[in-house]
Structure formats: structure tokens, C-alpha cells
User: Which sequence fits this backbone?
């Protein structure tokens, strides 16, 4: 079996399914377990820190571990950095067969910090019977020193090991999510998979295959396709004034607006995004349209254009990315409803003219999941906060598939990870 510690809602598991394999996930969160169940993934609902590791001895090929990142993440208080010496001590002790977790836990500023040592408890138990064949671990960048400690121990056990920072955008994920990765194998030389994407497209050369441009949010979400989804908008009148296309306070998509006659795509171009403008005869003009791979979807109203960007939260230091770029790192937690699409001015207004930008639009769970490289119809369970928390904590399946494929001797097929529905 493949053992998946802290399995979450199934980022690693979905990647394995696409590659024709399965894992057994250990997960405590109730709603993550329900999501996994709806996705058809095998799960033991348990606390990874108390489940007996020896029970898996003699049947494990691979171990996956993505310990909770809340103690280390920049989205939290980062008390894990204060606890790091204690976590290093726990790892060293567990690797030697000594369980000092209870004593060390009492000294931790954040009890979750010590969860990063739990994979070593399982690895030590499995090492006693010559397992596993390979190990994959993922965490936020600040955990890299801990992964290097794991790497030093695993090398003494006969593993080839690589540890470092990878950017999910370099592997086709529409998000610049940087993560500390550990790869270890008993049967092959460990190393990161070759990147498939770059910030700027790179052509093929004598030195190897080229790389595609990073996948933008607009591409991933299917904006710019007349047959695909478009962003949701809040009622309250178009940017140019005039009657509301929907009753006050309603939340509809521009597909609905088109059906009501307020949005008319030109027949021989693909419209990225347009909004009702001034006057009853307004329609989207061909010159205002953009193809699917062009920059950000826009609100268009006569001479003025609104460009949509994604703002990570309401804080002053929030990451803001245009829709023709990958998203910044998605993290939600207690700020699940602060990640919003905001409209910015992309072209100047005539002298003396003023217009009010459309109100921010909260990101939907479907959009957030797609930007994490989950399929659009992934069966998330729970309310908004529970769903967004799962998405923010999950490993991007597309990145996971790149990491897993060599250990499974399976080819990676990008077409298996089409994002937009």
C-alpha cells in the first residue's frame, strides 16, 4: 500500500487516482474525511500522532506526508519557528527509537509544531522491516531545515534523498505556491521532476525541451471561452450606471446576464468578460474582445475597461494578481471569505469622467479548487469555511502527480489535469 499521513481532502490521493494508483489516507478532520469519501478515497479517520505505526509494517511501498502547516505558515503566528529546536529533537529521538514527544510537547509554543516529527515515527517502524521503497513529503518553505534533517537520517538508512523548494507554477499549477519538498528512494536516484512551465515561455533548444508559460487564473478557470464558465458578479448596476441586470443583492454569473439579453458576445471571437454598459443598445464590440490565452478578463463599457485581479485577503500586505497571471499562494483559515476578485482600471477615462468600479466579488470554492489544480467538479464537503480550509491546506494534485509519477513508473499526461469545466 501507499500510506498517506495527514491526507487532507485528497490532493495526493487525486493525483494517485489519475496515475492509476490508490493510497490509504490517515486524516482527523471530519469534513476532509467526508470529502475523501465522496471522492472514493480510502481513509482511516484518526489522529496521526496516536495511531500505531507498527500496524502497517510489511505492506508499505511508499509513504506520503504533508503535516499541518498552520504552526509554520505566514498566514498564522509562525510559532513553529520558535518550536523548531524541539521538533528537531523529536525527529532525532524517534529515528533512534526513543519516543520523547510527550515531554517535548509540553514545551512547545504551538502543539501543532510537533506534528512535523510524526512521519519519522512511521518511517522508523517501517525501516525495521526494510520499508518503504520511497518517501515524499511536503510543507511550507520554513520547514526545509527539518526536511534536511530527515534527509540526513534517511541517507544513513540507504535512501537517495533530495530536498529543496519547488514552485507549483513551474509544474502547470495556476498558483505560485512555493513548498519545501523531500524526495527519497531506495531504488532510484532522487531528484525533482523537470519543470514544465516558466514565468516566460521558453522554446525548445539543443539543451532540452522548452517550457510553456505559467498557467494563468483566466486560463485555468476557462475565462475567455464562450462555452465555459465566467466570473460571478454582484448586482448593483453596470460600471456605466443604468438599470441593474438582477434584483438588488443577488449574485449571478454573466452567463445569466447573457441569457437576459444584457451580454452579447461577438459570433466570431471569444469574449473574456464583459459587463453591461450605458444605454439600452450596448453590446460587446469585437475590438473589445480577447482570446482565451490573452491577458486578464475585463469589464468593458464603451471607452472604459475593468481588469479583474485576485486579492488574497483584506490586509494591507495582501497579494494582488491580475487574472492573466497565476494566483498567489492560496491560504484561507479564518479569513476564508476575504479572498476576492477586485476590478482595476486598465485604460484611462475621458477628461473629467468618473466611474465607480464594480464591488469586489468573493472567490467561490469551485474557483479556489481549480486554482489549486483540483477538477472543477471535485466533491468538496462542508460549509464555506470548512471547504476553503480544506482547499488552502491541500497539496495541488498536479504538482503531486509530477512528484509521484517516477516512483510509480507511470507517465505524466498533462491532459489528465484539464482544469476548467
Assistant:
Amino acid at each position: 500500500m501507499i500510506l498517506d499521513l495527514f491526507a487532507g481532502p485528497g490532493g495526493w490521493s487525486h493525483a494517485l487516482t489519475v496515475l492509476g494508483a490508490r493510497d490509504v489516507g490517515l486524516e482527523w478532520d471530519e469534513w476532509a474525511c467526508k470529502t475523501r469519501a465522496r471522492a472514493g478515497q480510502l481513509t482511516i479517520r484518526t489522529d496521526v500522532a496516536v495511531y500505531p505505526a507498527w500496524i502497517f509494517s510489511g505492506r508499505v511501498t511508499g509513504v506520503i506526508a504533508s503535516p499541518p502547516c498552520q504552526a509554520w505558515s505566514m498566514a498564522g503566528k509562525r510559532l513553529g519557528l520558535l518550536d523548531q529546536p524541539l521538533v528537531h529533537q523529536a525527529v532525532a529521538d524517534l529515528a533512534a527509537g526513543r519516543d520523547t514527544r510527550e515531554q517535548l510537547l509540553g514545551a512547545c509554543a504551538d502543539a501543532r509544531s510537533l506534528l512535523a516529527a510524526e512521519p519519522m515515527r512511521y518511517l522508523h517502524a517501517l525501516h525495521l522491516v526494510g520499508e518503504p521503497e520511497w518517501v515524499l513529503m511536503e510543507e511550507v518553505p520554513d520547514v526545509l531545515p527539518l526536511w534536511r534533517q530527515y534527509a540526513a537520517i534517511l541517507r544513513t538508512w540507504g535512501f537517495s534523498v533530495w530536498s529543496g523548494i519547488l514552485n507549483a507554477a513551474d509544474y502547470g499549477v495556476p498558483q505560485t505556491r512555493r513548498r519545501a519538498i523531500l524526495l527519497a528512494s531506495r531504488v532510484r536516484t532522487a531528484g525533482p521532476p523537470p519543470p514544465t512551465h516558466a514565468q516566460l515561455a521558453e522554446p525548445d533548444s539543443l539543451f532540452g525541451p522548452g517550457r510553456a508559460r505559467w498557467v494563468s487564473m483566466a486560463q485555468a478557470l476557462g475565462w475567455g471561452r464562450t462555452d465555459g464558465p465566467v466570473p460571478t458578479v454582484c448586482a448593483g448596476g453596470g460600471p456605466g450606471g443604468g438599470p441593474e441586470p438582477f434584483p438588488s443583492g443577488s449574485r449571478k454569473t454573466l452567463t445569466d446576464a447573457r441569457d437576459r439579453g444584457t451580454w452579447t458576445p461577438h459570433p466570431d471571437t471569444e469574449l473574456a468578460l464583459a459587463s453591461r454598459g450605458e444605454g439600452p443598445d450596448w453590446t460587446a464590440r469585437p475590438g473589445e474582445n480577447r482570446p482565451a490565452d490573452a491577458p486578464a478578463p475585463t469589464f468593458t463599457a464603451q471607452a472604459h475597461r475593468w481588469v479583474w485581479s485576485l486579492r488574497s485577503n483584506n490586509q494591507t500586505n495582501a497579494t494582488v494578481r491580475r487574472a492573466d497571471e497565476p494566483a498567489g499562494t492560496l491560504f484561507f483559515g479564518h479569513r476564508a471569505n476575504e479572498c476576492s476578485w477586485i476590478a482595476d482600471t486598465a485604460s484611462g477615462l475621458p477628461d473629467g469622467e468618473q466611474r465607480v468600479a464594480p464591488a469586489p466579488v468573493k472567490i467561490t470554492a469551485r474557483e479556489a479548487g481549480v486554482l489549486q489544480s483540483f477538477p472543477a467538479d471535485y466533491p468538496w464537503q462542508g460549509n464555506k469555511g470548512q471547504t476553503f480550509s480544506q482547499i488552502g491546506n491541500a497539496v495541488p494534485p498536479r504538482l503531486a502527480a509530477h512528484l509521484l509519477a517516477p516512483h510509480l513508473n507511470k507517465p505524466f499526461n498533462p491532459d489528465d489535469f484539464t482544469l476548467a469545466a
Notes: The chain is about 25% helix and 15% strand. Residues 2-212+385-417 form a domain with the Rossmann fold fold (CATH 3.40.50.150).
